[in-house]
Amino acid sequence: MLDKLQIITTSDGSHSLFNTELNETYHSTHGAVQESLHVFIKNGLEFFEQINKSAEIKILEVGFGTGLNALLTLQYSLTHLTKILYESLEAFPVDQQTVSQLNYPTAISFSDAEKYFAQLHQSSWDEPTEITHSFTLFKRHVKIQDIDLGLEKFDVIFFDAFAPSKQAEMWEPAILKKIEQSMKPNGVFVTYCAKGQLKRDLKSLG
Questions:
Q1: What is the DSSP-derived secondary structure letter of residue 125?
Q2: To 10 degrees, the CA torsion angle through 168, 172, 176, 177?
Q3: What pTM value is reported for the model?
Q4: Tell me: the pLDDT tens digits for 72-87?
Q5: In degrees rounded to 5, what are phi and psi of residue 68?
Q6: Is residue 134 classed exposed, middle or buried when 0-12, 13-18 and 19+ CB atoms within 10 A define those classes?
Q7: Which residue from 177, 181, 166 is spatially nearest to 202, judged by alpha carbons?
Q8: DSSP state for residue 145 in the 8-state scheme
Q9: CA 169 to chain centre
């Protein structure tokens, strides 16, 4: 699948990837960074922190992809002095050659962004890596169907799989149930998808 990836520039100037096999982009063409900030950081991480007093926030991301969400979360942890454990699942990692051409460090532009972005992608799979004192990354090279997520483990879920029309198996009620069980009682689930069926499935899970 990796040879099916093309780098594109979205409307806010930040890059995304286009998967020619699925005919799908990794982010909104209206702005990759803009979308990630609005959906995952503002309405996920920031929202959770506003309503909870947690010394440490545990995030599960479904779909590491380009590492954009991880980089923005790392930036948030530095600017807000928030300790974050970031676990991310990815079945099909993006190759390093493609990653090296992505412009996120420039588009986001914070101190040492380029260094941190490289570390996020170069860190070992399937073992925790402390990127900074406030941000630990645990990348899992696995399909969500093949992993036990545990019970009441995560505070925030970043569900960033491809759209239901492209990867229907990722949005099955059984997968959503697994995720729901892995969330703490006051956890927050965020995704870019606003399909009516997803809303009904989430509602059925409480």
A1: B
A2: -170
A3: 0.94
A4: 999 999 999 999 999 9
A5: -65, -50
A6: middle
A7: 177
A8: G
A9: 18
